[in-house]
Amino acid sequence: MSAQQLHHVAPPEFLQLAGHPLRWHLLAELARSDRTVHELTALIGERQNLVSYHLGKLRDGRLVSARRSSADRRDTYYAVDLARIGGLLSAAGGALHPGLRLAPSSHRGVRPGAVRVLFLCTGNSARSLMAEALARALSGGSIEAYSAGSHPKPVHPNAVRVMRDEHDIDLSGQSSKHLNVFAGQRFDWVISLCDKVREVCPEFPGHPETIHWSIPNPATGDGDEDATHPLFQQTATELVTRIGFLLAVLIDRTRAPKEKP
Question: Which residues span the domain enclosing 93?
Fold first, then answer.
């Protein structure tokens, strides 16, 4: 290919979409935590109509998604699709040079006992309990993961079924716990998985990092266990993805500094 032809090669559409400064800022905020438009407006420092306009662009490009809040149906939570963005970044790099394709990162590497994470939802019967177990498994037991709920309910049979059949994790001996059990304890991260519990989450000592994942409750709605089983599968899949990216952050933050020669 000649220099003349190279001059006319357009950058990938993803770079044009995500490269806008305000949209990149939005993606950076959403990469940390799911947010409402009101929260994003305050964080970005721009007018709500402008933030909504650029969120619409990112939604059209399938870089972010929106879910109606289960706590306040008037609110909408936005979430970034990190897996899709990772693929697009790798493809963009590869389009420039094959050596720039991103290699998949490992989930292992957190020093044992270096991080304590608490997952919260309303019933602690599915989402947070599954997240606790997956965080331990995916980190090889290095993360001290816990879970609790604001209104504990018995562990849902489908949570046990999905974790056993698809992730080789046994939840049959687990029980739900009230978040008061952990009052006064220190955590590095407190992650709410439910819009309702986010609004009643107490403060924990030590100022832990708090983030929100707006994940629908798979146990809601009508239908027997077989009918709702796919919803639990979807929840587990989303948790695996989100926890995988969380572990990448934890590995980066807890990596031991290299010794000086």
Answer: 10-100
